[in-house]
């Protein structure tokens, strides 16, 4: 299918996805949902459509290893063309379009790599609209929420009538030569403020036909989006079987010594003492690390980061928790909840609780409402009551798609 009139696809997956949080398993397009990378699911939708002759995937120059692992979860590279993206999405799309120039295409579909729930029916609907003679096709969802306008983002300045307003989705379809020329013209004019490919088509005067989008065709933007998608696929796979829910507990204690601050849940808190330990002695993250490891039977923090190893001297404990979360993900787990109780006479935890919860959410890549931090005193009893140390108890809840480690 290389003759004029065939159809190509450009899958854009070169973004960094900062709003989804930083994780060792990479940007959001490589996060696991239902046991497979987001990008693997997106690519499969286009590669399984018999009308798509050529598919280009545009990735970041630092992501070749991540992409290789993701593509192993599909039917293999096949006819995929892999190119590197630019600093902005617009440049990435242009790179992808130019990689198809020798294929003699009639039409091309451009799709976000983080929209993994695109259906075969929607792809066919976009293609059918192009084949009917339209130069561009845009799937949309009518806006149903009341829209408010605010210049300073503090108070409402007015209500925007929602009649005739639509939310744009992808894949957006075009006459191949028209959209390639439009992108080149935008680059030559140094215009880089377009928010999607149809806005570039509009700029050069191409008519854009609206077609029905799909509510399920969501763009995964935040860590919460990814977790919701993972839960959806996890339970869909489980069918009528009970989900494999695991709960792990962890406990840690460190002595108080001379110092000027303590680190708890990754947050530095001014204090008239410090915590003694080989690393930064963050009892909360240590306990939570053990709780996560317990859900898949992989020992405790000392097995992975022995205190006898000098490389961990003074290390930030977020390294330990990220490692445990990564092992959970590798074994098919999704962290659903993290709960930490700090036991100390001082410092006061309340003023720092919000920052602590945010830090846990950032490290684990889950929504902040799934992270709990509580504190209690020991009623001046024992070593904690005498302010000789601080202890932490942690509980983690994880859903597994299959038996961990096998």
UniProtKB/TrEMBL annotation:
Binding positions for 4-CDP-2-C-methyl-D-erythritol 2-phosphate per the UniProt entry: 252-254, 278-279, 300-302, 376-379, 383, 386
UniProt site positions, description: Positions MEP for the nucleophilic attack: 162, 219
PROSITE patterns: ISPD (PS01295), ISPF (PS01350)
Entries under Gene3D superfamilies matching the protein: 2-C-methyl-D-erythritol 2,4-cyclodiphosphate synthase, Spore Coat Polysaccharide Biosynthesis Protein SpsA, Chain A
Reaction(s) this enzyme catalyzes, per UniProt: 4-CDP-2-C-methyl-D-erythritol 2-phosphate = 2-C-methyl-D-erythritol 2,4-cyclic diphosphate + CMP; 2-C-methyl-D-erythritol 4-phosphate + CTP + H(+) = 4-CDP-2-C-methyl-D-erythritol + diphosphate
Superkingdom of the organism of origin: Bacteria
Pathway(s) annotated for this protein in UniProt: Isoprenoid biosynthesis; isopentenyl diphosphate biosynthesis via DXP pathway; isopentenyl diphosphate from 1-deoxy-D-xylulose 5-phosphate: step 4/6; Isoprenoid biosynthesis; isopentenyl diphosphate biosynthesis via DXP pathway; isopentenyl diphosphate from 1-deoxy-D-xylulose 5-phosphate: step 2/6
Keywords: Isoprene biosynthesis, Lyase, Metal-binding, Multifunctional enzyme, Nucleotidyltransferase, Transferase
Cofactor: a divalent metal cation
Span list, region 2-C-methyl-D-erythritol 4-phosphate cytidylyltransferase: 1-245
The enzyme's E.C. designation: 2.7.7.60, 4.6.1.12
Function: Bifunctional enzyme that catalyzes the formation of 4-diphosphocytidyl-2-C-methyl-D-erythritol from CTP and 2-C-methyl-D-erythritol 4-phosphate (MEP) (IspD), and catalyzes the conversion of 4-diphosphocytidyl-2-C-methyl-D-erythritol 2-phosphate (CDP-ME2P) to 2-C-methyl-D-erythritol 2,4-cyclodiphosphate (ME-CPP) with a corresponding release of cytidine 5-monophosphate (CMP) (IspF).
PANTHER family noted in UniProt: 2-C-METHYL-D-ERYTHRITOL 2,4-CYCLODIPHOSPHATE SYNTHASE, CHLOROPLASTIC
Family, as annotated: Belongs to the IspF family.
Protein name as it appears in the record: Bifunctional enzyme IspD/IspF
Species of provenance: Hoeflea poritis
Gene: ispDF
């Amino acid at each position: 299918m290389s003759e004029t009139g065939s159809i190509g696809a450009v899958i854009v997956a070169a973004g960094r996805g900062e709003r989804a949080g930083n994780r060792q398993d990479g940007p959001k397009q490589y996060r696991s949902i239902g046991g497979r990378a987001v990008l693997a699911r997106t690519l499969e939708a286009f590669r399984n459509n018999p009308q798509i002759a050529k598919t280009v995937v545009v990735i970041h120059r630092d992501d070749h290893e991540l992409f290789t692992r993701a593509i192993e979860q599909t039917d293999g590279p096949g006819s995929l063309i892999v190119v590197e993206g630019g600093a902005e999405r617009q440049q990435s799309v242009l790179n992808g379009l130019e990689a198809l120039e020798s294929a003699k295409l009639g039409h091309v579909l451009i799709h976000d790599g983080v929209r993994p729930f695109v259906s075969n029916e929607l792809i066919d609907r976009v293609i059918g609209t192009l084949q009917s003679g339209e130069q561009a096709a845009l799937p949309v969802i009518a806006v149903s929420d009341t829209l408010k306008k605010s210049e300073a983002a503090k108070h409402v300045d007015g209500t925007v009538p929602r009649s005739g307003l639509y939310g744009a989705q992808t894949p957006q379809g075009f006459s191949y030569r028209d959209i390639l020329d439009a992108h080149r013209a935008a680059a030559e004019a140094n215009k880089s403020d377009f928010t999607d490919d149809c806005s570039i088509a509009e700029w050069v005067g191409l008519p854009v036909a609206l077609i029905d989008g799909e509510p399920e065709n969501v763009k995964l933007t935040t860590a919460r989006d990814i977790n919701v998608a993972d839960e959806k696929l996890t339970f869909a796979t489980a069918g009528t079987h009970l989900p494999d829910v695991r709960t792990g507990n962890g406990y840690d204690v460190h002595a108080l010594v001379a110092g000027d601050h303590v680190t708890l849940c990754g947050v530095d808190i001014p204090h008239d003492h410090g915590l003694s330990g080989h690393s930064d002695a963050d009892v909360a993250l240590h306990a939570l690390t053990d709780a996560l490891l317990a859900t898949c039977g992989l020992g405790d923090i000392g097995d992975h980061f022995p205190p006898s190893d000098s490389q961990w001297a003074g290390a930030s404990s977020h390294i330990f928790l990220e490692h445990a979360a990564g092992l959970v993900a590798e074994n098919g787990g999704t962290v659903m909840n993290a709960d930490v109780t700090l036991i100390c006479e001082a410092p006061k935890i309340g003023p720092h609780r919000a920052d602590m919860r945010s830090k846990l959410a950032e490290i684990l890549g889950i929504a902040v409402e799934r992270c709990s931090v509580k504190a209690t005193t020991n009623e001046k009893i024992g070593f904690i009551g005498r302010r000789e140390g601080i202890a932490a108890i942690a509980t983690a809840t994880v859903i597994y798609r299959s038996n961990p480690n096998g």
